[in-house]
Amino acid sequence: MTALDQAHDGGRSAAQWPRLALTGLVTLALLWGAFHLYQLQQPLFGLILLALACGIAVVFGSNRFYGARFIFPGVAAVLIFIAFPVIYTIWIGFTNYSSFNLLSKPRTVEVLLSRGTVDPDTEEPFAVAPEGDLYRVWLPESGLLSEPLALDGSEENAALAPADAPAALLERRDAIALRSGLGAATLTAPDGTVLMNAGLRTFASVQPDYELLDPDTLRRTSDGALLTANPRTGFFETEAGERVPPGWRVTVGWQNFERILTNEGIRGPMVSIFVWTVLFAGGTVVFAFGLGLLLAVILQWEHLRFKAVYRVLLILPYAVPAFISILVFRGIFNQNFGELNLILEALFGLRPHWFTDATLARVMILIVNVWLGYPYMMLLAMGFLQAVPADHKKAAALEGASSVRTFFSITLPQILPPFLPLLIAAFAFNFNNLMLILLLTRGQPDIPGTAIPAGKTDILASFTYRLAFNDSSQQFGLAGAITLIIFVIVGAVSYANFVAMRRAAARRAPQ
Amino acid sequence: MIVERPRDLLVKKILAHGFLLLFLALILFPFLVVVSISFREGNFTVGSLWPENPTLEHWYLAFGLDYVRDDGTVVEPPYPVLLWMWNSIKIGLIAASGILALSVVSAYAFSRIRIRGKGAMLDGLFLIQMFPTTLALVALYAIFDAAGEVSPMLGIDSHLALILVYLSMITLHIWTIKGYFDSVDTALDKAAEIDGASPWQTFRYVFLPLAVPIMAVVFVLAFIFVINDYPIASVLIRSEENLTLAVGSRLYLNEFRYLWGDFAAAAILSGLPITVVFLIAQRYLVSGLSEGAVKG
Fold first, then answer.
1. Which of B75, B96, B121 is at the close of a domain?
2. A214 φ, ψ to 5°?
3. Residue B135 Cα, gap to closest chain A Cα (Å)
4. In the UniProt record, does the keyword Membrane occur (chain A) (predicted)?
């Protein structure tokens, strides 16, 4: 509405007001979402939405930011779904967010306070008697009838008094429809006991398990023990230190990082996983590059016929969706009924354990990844090889250099610099090649004797993924901490790449 | 190289073709195996590589049809492959269109419109893009878990949430298209400006028609990326009928329910169209890949 008014007040051209109206509507919708998130105790996400709403209102509402309109949507998408999650993940690394500490503190208190023990002696069935817009609860066994209740979901208390059975009672089905109202109501019997809804059919005196004394203290009714909120662990604890689950999320500082560095059960596997990640990414790039370059050189040979056919067949591994190829390999390498072992057994009587032997599993992963990656390198190499001037090669040949010598002294030095940034990018990509590991081995076989699930073929990214999503105890905090370590490594690699690209661009420019 | 003796040349030719053929036999072996298995009986049979009693059972199941065996037992399809394929294609088309729209508009602005801090923004985008979204999965999960409380349409297990995440994968494409726009003569903008065109009109009527070839490349690249994504979809999508092909296919080769034959037919059925699209597009991709990446 404000957008409309503005359009009329300002006397702007009629063509503008549909845009302003749309901007206003989108802004209002986002503001509503932000408010809703704030109410749901997600102030951080609410803030993001609020910022987005303000951004849209300013950039699309005012004519001063005409140029920014073009890039705002793209930049906003990158900031919200890449930059913010990265920062948020790092922040999670400093918390104890996990399946044990899942909720916010107010929700935890709510959960604890809602727990109660039903006193079986006082349990009795009930019926609901309508009275105008209100209802009375009738307890037939003790012959008590309550004062009228609204049963609209708000907390109510009504006194019970002896009475005759009401004339009309609701059907059970209709009474069940009122259960949210019944659940919020308490009834006080003439002797002072308080009765609560204890299930679909009964009312009983329910003894709450915990009593809130002040925001940070609970009393356990069974033994009277005092529980204090421990802001460092995110649990209510007894004086003896006994923790009462569930806990809530708190920031724990460097605790996750300390665990990674000091706990031998985590540090040991982390180091071996890191080494394997580097070997895996580096090995893939080296082998795929070598193979791709070799094939490109052969395909560029002037005397070779059927080049087009070879080319299409050679890039097939790149053209088939990777998730399908990887799963195909998973089947082919299968120990018991995989086709590869079938052939190996027929020829050599061998039956290698591709999935249970760590070394063989790693070899298998490298084979599959080189198979997936060499066509990309080949395509790139073919492009770069064409850029090498033929005169240089001819001159070398006239000087009597062999073709191998020419390749290593003339061709390779010329194509390596422009190739370098792409090789670094390939390394960074494979460093986090989650899909390959998840689809092929899921990190199996496991490293024995570790504190957390870790596999011999896990790379850092898949290790984090399993920690967060694949286990009984989802350790988001620890996963976030490890992610930060990966970020630092990837950041360094990215920066190196950035510099390499700048150099490559600078080298091209003068030509 | 310039002067070669005919006999040496012949030996070299035989070596080259021999090497390529041997290599191709190794490389293409998995594809041949999969085709053979899709016609083989049963899901485990350790039989010969050439199916002895070819059957169409796996193909019936892949197309979502019941198959009646000779002995009268009816086999039902284990998973809704066609539905997954439809999900993947739907998400792929919508996300790729969105990625294309966002990146082409941004690329035009970065190439032609004067905005303060443009250079820093470009560098920033480039660095951010190096951090793969697959590492921020925990945060993405938490974000959409919370968003789902506002509206289930935006929560976990919704295609819209998945598309929103894919929409952020634009930085590389912005760079590619910007490189293309940078090579367009500035006289064109001047002419449009003199004729009274606003920057938006210049973009809409001058630059957009020029960019059609590069846009096709970006669209195909984005589409293939989305179809191929496993990690993000596996975290955000839960229920079987909402799965994408990449996440669903993995169910076939579960340790406890190993459906090798059914998988083979489903894999060919779903992989073939994507492969064909890629092979048609690859000519244009190569130039886009090497040029867009190096242009700074």
1. B75
2. -145, 170
3. 6
4. yes
Whose CA is closest to B16, among A212, A301, A264, A144? Answer: A301
Burial of A24 (0-12, 13-18, 19+ CB in 10 A): buried
CB contact under 8 A, B127 and A36: no
Angle subtended at Cα A410 by Cα A409 and Cα A411, rounded to the nearest 5 degrees: 115
In order of their start, the domains of chain A are: 2-92 (1.20.58.370), 116-208 (2.40.430.10), 261-508 (1.10.3720.10)
Q: What is the pLDDT of residues B260-292, one digit of tens each?
A: 888 888 889 888 888 888 888 776 665 555 454
Of B106, B150, B245, the CB nearest to A36: B150
Read off the amino acid at residue A422.
L
The H or E element that residue A125 is part of is: strand A124-125
DSSP per-residue letters across B73-119? -EE--SS-HHHHHHHHHHHHHHHHHHHHHHHHHHHHHHHHS--TTHH
> Which A residues in the span 3-32 are in contact with B, Cβ-Cβ below 8 Å?
none
The number of beta carbons lying within 10 Å of the beta carbon of residue A305 is: 10
Q: Is the pTM of this model over 0.80?
A: no
CB crowding A143-177: b at 16 or more within 10 Å, else e: ebbbebbebeeeebebebeeeeeeeebbeeeebee
Q: H-type helices in A93-161, by residue range?
A: 105-114
Q: Is the peptide bond before A317 cis (omega within 30 degrees of 0)?
A: no
- For residues A464-496, one letter each, b for 16 or more C-beta atoms within 10 angstroms of the residue's C-beta and e for the rest, the string is bbbbbbeeeebbbbbbbbbbbbbbebbeebbee
Count of structural domains within chain B: 2
Residues in Cβ contact with A317 at an 8 Å cutoff, skipping those fewer than 6 apart:
A325, A371, A372, A374, A375, B27
Between chains, do B33 and A339 touch, taking CB under 8 Å as contact? yes
Task: Please name the residue that has the structure tokens 């679909």.
Answer: A200
Quick one: tokens of A38? 């704030």
* Residue B179: CATH number of its domain: 1.10.3720.10
Distance from CA of B101 to the nearest CA of A (A): 9
What is the pairing mode between strands A247-248 and B67-68? Answer: unpaired
pLDDT digits (tens, 9 = 90+) for B213-253: 788 888 888 888 899 889 999 989 988 889 998 898 888 88
Give the integer Cα–Cα distance in Å for A453 and B269: 36
Per the CB < 8 A criterion, the answer to whether B240 and B226 are in contact is no
CA distance A472 to A81: 27
Question: A196 near A205, Cβ under 8 Å?
Answer: yes
Provide the ipTM. 0.85
Tens of pLDDT, residues A149-176: 877 777 778 888 887 777 778 777 777 7
3-class DSSP state for residue A208?
strand
Which residue in the block uniquely carries the two structure tokens 């242009």? Answer: B295
- On whether residue B221 sits in a domain, the answer given is yes
Angle of the A476-508 helix axis to the B137-150 helix axis, nearest 10: 110
